[in-house]
Amino acid sequence: MLARLASKRLLEIRQAFRQSPQTIRSLSTALNYHIDTPENNPNVPWEFNEANKPKVNEILSHYPSNYKQSAVIPLLDLAQQQHGGWLPVSAMDAVAKVVEVAPIRVYEVATFYSMFNRAKVGKYHLLVCGTTPCMIRGSREIEDALLKHLGVKRNEVTKDGLFSVGEMECMGCCVNAPMITVADYSTGSKGYTYNYYEDVTPKRVVEIVEALKRGEKPPHGTQNPERINCGPAGGNTTLLGEPKPPPCRDLDAC
């Protein structure tokens, strides 16, 4: 009896999601299961295009023929680039066919890594680092500035299809927190880039968005004019010259 009630409730929830495309678009990247939509279901035809088929063969050539499944991640990345920055379930099925594994093996990978988007994103997918150092340095204000300026919620796409905003955990440059990355799918797999912008402010991220709208490519890296790469703002205050060598390098002879 309880099992039937639970099954009925789950069916009701799924039906509610299907009847609300906005909810699906907002949340599906965070779900660990798939919900069919008109533009994302197993019956939508998908295959690697002629330009990417040689790349598929080149990727497969890196692995022994009996370990094709090792190519899942680079093939998913190529499929995502071809499809404008996101992976429909039919693209995952195509990758499974190429590497000769059950589709569930590909779904497991695509749902694990945050780099794979399972719902539509903008040509410029803006990802805000949400890990502790960036959060302490104002990443929530960075995200709020982006969402307000673009008029969207997290994981929504702007009406012109240009921008979407998401979150990514630690991007690995905590010393230059807060930071964002811009996944640029505007030219597909031919000119795909993934650039980091560090030391950003709410004002600066809006400027970056406006520059991208104009077709410009803002210089990536630190946005703090007083900092060189990951060096201290204002320049070094210690280690200003060559360090003095130890008096004796042969420790056994000391």
TrEMBL record:
One of its GO terms (molecular function) is metal ion binding. [2Fe-2S] cluster binds at C129, C134, C170, C174. GO terms for cellular component: mitochondrion. Transmembrane segments: none annotated. GO terms for biological process: mitochondrial electron transport, NADH to ubiquinone. Binds 1 [2Fe-2S] cluster. CDD domains: TRX_Fd_NuoE. Its cofactor is [2Fe-2S] cluster. InterPro entries: NuoE-like, NuoE_dom, NuoE_N, Thioredoxin-like_sf. It comes from the Eukaryota. Residues 215-244 are annotated as: Disordered. Keywords: 2Fe-2S, Iron, Iron-sulfur, Metal-binding. PANTHER family: NADH DEHYDROGENASE [UBIQUINONE] FLAVOPROTEIN 2, MITOCHONDRIAL, NADH DEHYDROGENASE UBIQUINONE FLAVOPROTEIN 2, MITOCHONDRIAL. Belongs to the complex I 24 kDa subunit family. This is NADH dehydrogenase [ubiquinone] flavoprotein 2, mitochondrial.
